[in-house]
Design goal:
alpha+beta; 6-stranded antiparallel β-sheet
């Protein structure tokens, strides 16, 4: 018989059960072994790939962390200098030393430099050669760091000599005023990246490399990169796939199939790529497959032999079971089947033997079930009545006895309508009953409510549900009625309905808007006033959300108040604005949380009262109050300016008059000094000539020469005349300063030298600055920068300078009053005047004194009119207020004050170089 003939015979059932069982067992065994081996091979391959993926990921992560640690260390050292306040203001030599200290112990720094605000390199250091930095003003690096004030790592470039990739790190630096004033940049060689990739162990043939943000290779293990090659498109796509942890292989960097993993470097836009050739991965799997196939062959042979023996042991008892089954089918119920060793066949034989005895046991079970159902009927909490075809009571459980007050024995066999229904309802109940029992298999309503009378004639409302049992002919035999006493529940529901009607009447007749919302803002209840405003029926509002009724911003504000009520779990009051069509109404809303029986908040209730009229009146009153305050402030400012202007005008006229009166006689004195010097020199020359030709004068002349001490007179007279000239020039300078300070002839807008104005003011106050018998000199320090002439009102700026300087001198003197003479002598007061160009359009003037300083409360009110900390009669409180108005309103600048008790005071004035056209 051929193989195909055997299969056909096997399918047709001609082969014996023993043969079929043997073939089936052997076939299933071989199939199971082969399937198991295949699954083990596939599972082993997946495990190895998963382990490889984890190892590759760990290798790339370790390499990325090591590179990131190098970069973080380099950035941390730059951050030390970045946090040095005033770094950009330091002397270039100091900056040079700081940069030299930065790169001394780390050869990764190719060069370090500092650029000013214009992008020009002002300091640079390199451990290898002289650094020649070009201006970085127009580079993306300068724009990102200086203008956007953030750290920046530049793209990688290939350094020409030596051939090595480099990058640049830049951070912003600040001046003494904590303002970004330059850029600190460091050029880094990336040799440490090559070192890390070279130290990365990737199997025997694997390798690692690093790519930058443009997918160029900047370092690779085993190769020194002399260029920055960009990855091929297909390799780039493969790397992006590897980033999603794919198990697929791809053509790697060196052109052969690999499994790869990519890990980003946190501090940079670079990534570390680790690739392992597929040949190295598949080699152990091929060896494992050979051993597995050999084992499978051995297992198939052993399994086939065991299956053959097992099938023989099964077929023998099957033959015995077949013989016994034939005997039983012939009517021999006494036949016993004996099967040993096989539990399943033994169970089957026992089943045959016990079939007769189980028939009697089945009857006993049916009786037990009937008893069980009767127990359930009595234990049920619902009312259960079993009625026959004539409506007579057959069964009556204990719940009926407890509810209706009758004992089951006294009512069995009586129609239920005679006992439990009122006379007016009996005829209708009897008619309906006959319809029910005559319905046979037809459908009828089996759920209803009915009022039943108890033995005490108390009316109980019961909800009934009927079930009908039919006999073999389809006629109604029994009706089982199950009822629930709902008297109390119906009364409670009626009370609830009445309460809801009362509440609805109160809500609908209230002039306030009343509503209830759930936790999500959906309306659960609304009164008629709410519906009237929305032009809807109140029932139509139920289920709607705030955003369906109001504009988004108003709805969101209401929802925010709702969430606040539930979060704080208390009543809150808030003003809310609502829009109804074209009408905008302001409400005072009171909201409180609502709780269920378990105490959980399920919503809120709101009562909103229309306060639009009151709100409008309050706004009008507030507007009137604001207008009055503005008018009063303008009046006070005008009065203050008028007083101060008149004061300065009078002072200017007085100063100009005094200067003019002093200048006239001083002109005579200064003009005659020249002639006096010439005349005195001529007389001295004449005396020398006489002494040359008459060395032995008469006795009377000699006595006169001794008396007047001619030699001393000859020597001292030029000194006296020089001293007179110095005094006259000093007087002229003072007169000129007085005249310049007054500026009566130059009161309009013009270009002026700020330094000249400050110097003239200091000249006027020289008497308060120089040493006095009771106090030392107040030292003046001038730190003048290069600033241009500015458009201003010079006379008014002089007024600002004298007001600020007088306040600073007063503060220094007040501080000295609380110190001993020795302390004042060791630490005399100082005034520091600093000028600088803030930017292309502004200059800055800084006045710092070493006075007693002031509190924060005083600083807040410092520029307010009539505010002063000086005793009555010594200060009016107008000087700083007028100065603030001159700087901010007249010159479009800013005047600020920084001070602390015991640390002095600093006034900072920022002025534009050019005034706007509308400057007053």
């Amino acid at each position: 018989m051929t193989q195909f003939a055997f299969i056909k015979t096997f399918r047709q059932g001609s082969v014996s059960l023993a043969t079929r069982l043997q073939v089936t067992l052997i076939g299933l065994t071989v199939l199971g072994v082969v399937a198991t081996g295949s699954l083990l091979l596939a599972w082993s391959w997946q495990i190895q790939l998963r382990q490889l993926q984890e190892i590759q990921a760990e290798r790339s992560q370790i390499a990325a962390q090591r590179i990131n640690a190098f970069i973080d260390d380099l950035q941390r050292k730059l951050a030390y200098l970045e946090r040095v306040q005033g770094l950009s203001d330091l002397d270039p030599a100091i900056q040079q030393h700081l940069l030299d200290g930065l790169i001394r112990h780390n050869d990764a720094y190719e060069a370090v430099a500092i650029a000013d605000r214009d992008g020009n390199i002002i300091s640079a250091v390199s451990p290898y050669e002289d650094v020649k930095w070009e201006s970085i003003a127009d580079t993306p690096l300068f724009n990102r760091v200086y203008k956007q004030q953030e750290s920046y790592i530049a793209p990688v470039e290939m350094q020409m000599q030596p051939q090595q990739p480099v990058t640049t790190i830049a951070v912003p630096i600040r001046n003494a005023q904590d303002v970004v004033d330059g850029v600190l940049l460091a050029r880094l060689n990336l040799s440490f990246v090559e070192f890390v990739t070279a130290q990365t162990d990737v199997g025997q043939t694997g390798y690692a490399y690093v790519v930058d943000e443009r997918y160029r290779v900047i370092a690779a293990s085993g190769d020194r990169q002399n260029t920055l090659p960009k990855l091929k498109p297909e390799l780039l796509a493969s790397l992006k796939t590897a980033q999603t942890h794919s198990n697929d292989s791809y053509l790697g960097l060196r052109g052969y199939p690999v499994f790869g993993q990519v890990h980003p470097i946190e501090s940079t836009p670079w990534s570390v790529v680790v690739e392992l050739p597929t040949t190295e991965v598949s080699a152990p799997m091929r060896q494992f497959a050979v051993w597995m196939l050999g084992g499978l062959v051995v297992m198939i042979m052993l399994a086939s032999g065991i299956s053959w023996l097992l099938s023989r042991s099964i077929t023998r008892p099957l033959k015995r079971l077949t013989t016994a089954a034939n005997a039983i089918s012939a009517g021999d119920w006494d036949t016993k089947v004996k099967v040993s060793h096989l539990t399943e066949l033994q169970v089957l034989a026992t089943t045959f033997n016990q079939m007769t005895s189980q028939m009697s046991q089945l009857l006993d079970t049916v009786q037990n079930e009937r008893n069980f159902m009767a127990a359930i009927l009595e234990a049920a909490r619902a009312l259960v009545l079993v009625l026959d075809r004539q409506g007579r009571i057959v069964r009556f459980n204990w719940a009926c006895e407890a509810t209706l007050g009758y004992c089951g024995a006294e009512i069995i066999g009586q129609p239920f309508w005679d006992l439990f229904l009122a006379e007016a309802e009996r005829d209708l109940a009897i008619a309906q009953w006959h319809i029910k029992v005559m319905a046979s298999n037809q459908t009828y309503s089996s759920e209803y409510q009915s009022q039943w009378l108890t033995s005490d004639q108390e009316v109980r409302l019961i909800a009934w549900s009927d079930a009908v049992l039919y006999d073999d002919e389809g006629e109604v035999e029994y009706v089982i009625s199950t009822g629930i006493d709902i008297t109390e529940r119906e009364a409670a529901q009626q009370a609830k309905r009445e309460s809801r009607m009362l509440l609805k009447a109160v809500l609908d007749n209230s002039p306030e808007v009343i509503y209830i919302k759930d936790k999500d803002g959906n309306i659960l209840l609304a009164n008629k006033e709410f519906g009237r405003l929305m032009n809807l029926d109140p029932d139509e509002l139920i289920g709607k959300h705030n955003r369906e009724l109001f504009p988004p911003e108003i709805a969101d504000k209401m929802l925010e108040n709702d969430r606040l009520v539930m979060a704080q779990d208390q009543v809150i009051q808030r003003e809310e604005v609502a829009v109804f069509g074209e009408e905008v109404i302001t409400y005072l809303s009171s909201k409180f949380p609502l709780r269920d029986d378990q105490g959980n908040i399920y919503g809120i209730c709101g009562i909103s009262t229309d306060i639009s009229d009151r709100k409008q009146a309050e706004e009008q009153l507030q507007q009137a109050k604001d207008a009055a305050e503005v008018a009063l402030t303008n009046f006070q400012n005008a009065q203050t300016q008028l007083i101060q202007s008149e004061k300065m005008s009078s002072l200017g006229q007085l100063v100009a008059g005094v200067a003019h009166e002093i200048n006239n006689p001083m002109s005579f004195i200064f003009g005659n000094l020249v002639h006096l010097e010439n005349y005195s020199q001529n007389l001295l020359d004449l005396i020398d000539c006489y002494h040359q030709y008459y060395p032995q004068p008469p006795a009377e002349v000699a006595d006169l020469v001794d008396e007047i001490d001619l030699d001393f007179l000859h020597e001292d007279l030029p000194k006296v005349l020089g001293s007179m000239r110095f005094g006259a020039e000093r007087v002229r300078e003072i007169v000129l300063s007085l005249r310049n300070f007054s500026r009566l002839d130059e009161d309009g807008e013009k270009e002026a030298d700020i330094h000249e104005g400050i110097n003239n003011t200091l000249m006027i106050l020289n008497n308060r600055l120089k040493a006095q018998p009771d106090r030392p000199e107040i030292k003046v320090i001038k730190n003048y920068g290069e600033i241009p002439l500015i458009e201003c009102f010079p006379g008014q700026l002089n007024q600002v300078f004298i007001n600020l300087l007088v306040n600073s001198i007063d503060a220094i003197e007040e501080k000295n009053q609380s110190r001993s003479p020795d302390e004042v002598k060791q630490d005399p007061g100082t005034l520091t005047m600093t000028t600088s160009r803030l930017d292309a359009d502004h200059i800055r003037i800084v006045l710092r004194d070493s006075g007693k300083g002031m509190t924060h409360e005083t600083q807040v009110k410092l520029f307010s009119p009539f505010f002063t900390t000086k005793p009555i009669g010594k200060g009016t409180g107008l000087g700083l207020s007028i100065s603030y108005q001159i700087v901010t309103e007249k010159h479009q600048g800013t005047l600020r004050c920084q001070s602390a008790l015991g640390e002095g005071t600093t006034f900072m004035i920022d002025l534009p170089i050019k005034l706007a056209v509308n400057a007053a």
